[in-house]
């Protein structure tokens, strides 16, 4: 208990090199590096925390780097969101170590990892190893649960569109499963995973809104 108290006291005097505020509790694991940062500040500082083993953390200078080879094709799109990506591998742009032809945004592959759970694999070549090991090393956090899209099996077939309001408090007098084509009881599905939905009136969505994203995404 005394050691924990001393550690907390030390952290209170450490400044985050990203936001410059005190209370930074994470130190780069590279020998000789004294950079400290807050966990929420890590993405802004391009830092990596590995969510396995010793849970090591690294600053932008000492973080692990991908050694993905040059791609044989010129498809400069994220394999998950289909938006344009830079061909060069970086903190924000990652690639598959197996097929070398897949590029994706870090935030896209992180979102996929949380939804895919134990079914996590390369979104293009479907490789699991060494893909999963590489993503863990690069700081992607994995979930050990079943894929989120399989949770809808109790409602209907796996290919059935999600059809219930997942708001904490559903206001629809006809119930969570009711959905109109238009109006306040139109059901919006998450634009990222399509595994959760919400009535327009049960959220802060405006009539002109064309997309909604669930809390998980």
- CATH architecture label of the largest domain: 2-Layer Sandwich
Q: State the CATH class of the largest domain.
A: Alpha Beta
Strand order in space, largest sheet: 1-2
Number of helices: 3
Q: What is the fold-level CATH name, i.e. the topology of the largest domain?
A: Herpes Virus-1
Quick one: overall form?
A: globular
Identify low-pLDDT runs: 152-159
Number of domains: 3
Radius of gyration: 21 Å
Major beta-sheet overview: 2 strands, antiparallel
Give the integer mean of the pLDDT values. Answer: 83
Strand content: 5-15%
Order of helix and strand elements from N to C terminus: HEEEEEEHHEE
Name the structural class: little secondary structure
Oligomeric assembly: single chain
Compute the number of strand runs: 8
| End-to-end CA span | 37 Å
How are the SSEs placed, and which strands pair?
Blueprint: H1 2-12, E1 26-27, E2 36-37, E3 48-49, E4 57-58, E5 93-95, E6 103-105, H2 106-116, H3 131-137, E7 187-189, E8 197-199
Antiparallel strand pairs: 1-2, 3-4, 5-6, 7-8
GO molecular function, one term: zinc ion binding
Organism: Notiomystis cincta
Domain PHD-type: 1-63
Q: Which key features would you list for this structure?
A:
217 residues; little secondary structure; Herpes Virus-1; 3 domains; 3 helices; 9% strand; zinc; Znf_RING/FYVE/PHD; zinc-finger
Polypeptide structure, described:
By secondary structure, the chain is low in regular secondary structure. The protein folds into three domains: 63 residues, Zinc/RING finger domain, C3HC4 (zinc finger) (Herpes Virus-1), CATH 3.30.40; 81 residues, Herpes Virus-1 (2-Layer Sandwich), CATH 3.30.40; 55 residues, 2-Layer Sandwich (Herpes Virus-1), CATH 3.30.40.10. 13% of the residues lie in helices and 9% in strands. The chain is built from three helices and eight strands. The strands form four sheets. It has a two-stranded antiparallel sheet with strand order 1-2. A hairpin with a 7-residue loop joins strand 3 and strand 4. It is globular, with a radius of gyration of 21 Å. The protein starts with a helix and ends in an 18-residue tail after the last strand. About 4% of the residues have low confidence. InterPro entries: EPHD, PHD-type_Zinc_Finger, PHD_PHF7/G2E3-like, Znf_FYVE_PHD, Znf_RING, Znf_RING/FYVE/PHD.
